[in-house]
Design goal:
The chain is of the alpha+beta class and about 375 residues long. It has 11 helices and 18 strands. Helix 3 packs antiparallel against helix 7. The radius of gyration is 26 Å and the shape is globular.
């Protein structure tokens, strides 16, 4: 699959990480000159940090230990005795202090510092941040003076605890995580190698799934999204023992849409080719499919999985309109796949959404996929 344009990557990220507001979509035009994903993430991160300062950066209580003339907080008895502080009329105290030097802010500052480091390689070639982006990143980094840097590791992000309405922090920390997961630092030379995550199928698959979920949660009111959760129960597992039941894989749909007229189970996939190649590798598609896909076949595993979802949810939740399934694949620039078949009495569709188009057209295509006319 061809690379998704930089602007559309930002569009996906906004929906995937719950940061879609009018000003966010409006600023797409300001990102038009960027050429790499690192420029994009740097620009977004710097702009987000500046916005945090305008509204007030978060503070939290951090633990401190200091030698004081009086007692504050909890007296550290052993430390006071070991260092003979009483002879100097001092005592060691442990106390909590309200500070901006908390883990979320440390992650932000460390990520900005990583972007400013010299010696960056992107996909085998030496690159630097766009001059304008570097200036923005440096300015945002300096605004975080007084906040410690931390060594970023995979579990660092899992240690963050944010309160309820902290959408901007959630979004910016997701940007930091993506930057971390897309970089590798050589401990000997200090050189950072960036990987263009658009070429990583696993990363883009997860992003595409989150985008689809976020899009339908925000952009339509025809369907309820994931009513009762995404878990689908097996219809014929009632007689299984607990031990046997533990061996049965769970079924979690990507997105479930329900209205009085339709119940849709939507399963996202992310392949360079939406159709399987080779004899016997898939299931034939409807004759109405456009010629770009010729006589290609749907990936059989995808189809069987979706059919299992539809069949079991219909059996365990029979009240309501019949279930149907949609396999949704991304594409960039190729002709669209449109397959519409019936299997075991269920309507099953396979469709692609062109992520290389203008984001307004992506918006229309996503709504049209589930039968909603674009506005």
């Amino acid at each position: 699959m061809k690379n998704i344009p930089i602007l559309n990557v930002y569009y996906l990220l906004c929906y995937a990480w719950g940061r879609v507001q009018e000003r966010d979509t409006a600023r797409l035009a300001t990102l038009g000159g960027l050429s790499t994903v690192q420029d994009l993430l740097g620009k977004v991160l710097a702009g987000g940090v500046n916005h945090l300062f305008r509204r007030g950066i978060d503070r939290g209580y951090v633990e401190r230990r200091e030698d004081l003339a009086g007692i504050r907080g909890k007296l550290a008895v052993s430390e006071t005795a070991k260092r003979a502080l009483r002879a100097r009329a001092r005592v060691a105290c442990d106390f909590e202090e309200l500070s901006v030097d908390i883990l979320p802010n440390r992650i932000l500052r460390s990520s900005l510092h990583g972007l400013l480091r010299r010696g960056v390689t992107l996909n085998g070639r030496d690159v630097t941040l766009d001059r304008r982006v570097r200036a923005d990143v440096r300015s945002a980094y300096r605004r975080l003076d007084g906040i410690s840097r931390t060594r970023l590791q995979r579990n660092t992000f899992g240690q963050v605890q944010l309160g309820g309405n902290r959408r901007l922090y959630h979004f910016l920390l997701s940007v930091c995580r993506l930057l971390y997961e897309s970089s590798l630092v050589d401990e000997t030379t200090g050189r950072t190698t960036f990987r263009d995550f658009r070429r990583d199928e696993a990363t883009m698959w997860a992003l595409f799934e989150e985008f689809v979920t976020g899009f339908y949660q925000r952009e339509q009111r025809v369907y309820r999204v994931n009513p009762g959760g995404r878990r689908i129960q097996w219809a014929d597992a009632d007689g299984a023992t607990d031990a046997d039941r533990a061996r049965i894989p769970v079924m979690d749909a990507d997105v479930i849409l329900e209205s009085p007229e339709r119940r849709i189970i939507l399963d996202t996939k992310y392949y360079s080719n939406a159709l399987a190649g080779g004899r016997g590798s898939g299931v034939g598609i409807a004759s109405g499919t456009r010629s770009a896909y010729g006589t290609g076949k749907l990936h059989s595993g995808n189809l069987y999985q979706l059919l299992a979802y539809v069949r079991n949810r219909q059996a365990t939740r029979p009240a309501g309109p019949p279930h149907e399934g949609i396999l949704l694949y991304p594409q960039v620039g190729d002709e669209a796949l449109r397959a519409d078949i019936r299997l075991e009495g269920f309507r099953i569709q396979a469709r692609t959404v062109d992520l290389g188009r203008d984001w307004r057209l992506i918006h229309e295509e996503m709504l049209e996929t589930v039968g909603i006319d674009g506005e």
